[in-house]
Write a structure and sequence with these properties.
With about 170 residues, the protein is an alpha+beta fold. The protein has a single domain, classed as Aminopeptidase (3-Layer(aba) Sandwich), CATH 3.40.630. The protein is built from 7 helices and 7 strands. The chain has a 7-stranded mixed sheet, with helices on both faces.
Length: about 170
């Protein structure tokens, strides 16, 4: 079952994020890795800044995915599934649920070296934007350090690409 997370889920969300983020250790730049990957204060700040978490539940919360409306788009944020439950379709179900809820174009940022994450979104219709656009989007819609901008990619859904102005043909 998928449901919107609430305050009572905070510790489970935090545990899922930090368990699943272990996949980044040794993959992302060393200067971007920390343990825990996300502190409780950082998670509180993300929620306060408008990230709404949805969770996949069986007997317990097994995966989470956040969505945040920023200006004219929605951002997919903090998509994580417990390590022991990966590759069972949980992340895909969460994304399909968020896609069905979203009325705005969707963007997702992830680490450039997290090839599995990029593939996950590409397999579900998202496409990477070019480097110049990535830099602009990360600076416009996210609040992340410059070093993270340098080491990340942005993927967009078809709706986002359709909203972009096209240069007239000459």
């Amino acid at each position: 079952m998928i449901r919107r997370c609430n305050d009572r889920d905070f510790n489970e969300i935090h545990a899922i994020i930090n368990d699943a983020a272990r996949a980044y250790e040794g993959i992302i730049p060393k200067d971007r890795w920390k343990d825990p990957y996300m502190s409780k204060d950082e998670l509180r700040r993300e929620i306060r800044d408008g990230v709404v978490f949805w969770g996949y539940l069986e007997d317990e919360l097994l995966g989470v995915m956040g969505i945040q409306d920023v200006k004219d788009v929605s951002l997919i944020r903090h998509a994580y599934v417990l390590t022991r439950k990966r590759s069972q379709g949980i992340g895909g179900r969460l994304l399909v649920h968020l896609l069905s809820q979203a009325s705005r174009p969707l963007l997702v940022g992830t680490w450039a070296d997290a090839t599995w994450a990029i593939r996950f979104y590409e397999n579900r219709g998202f496409r990477q934007v070019n480097r110049e656009t990535k830099n602009r989007l990360l600076n416009e819609y996210w609040s992340i350090p410059k070093r993270q901008v340098e080491t990340s990619v942005v993927l967009a859904d078809q709706k986002w690409f359709e909203t972009q102005t096209r240069e007239p043909k000459s």
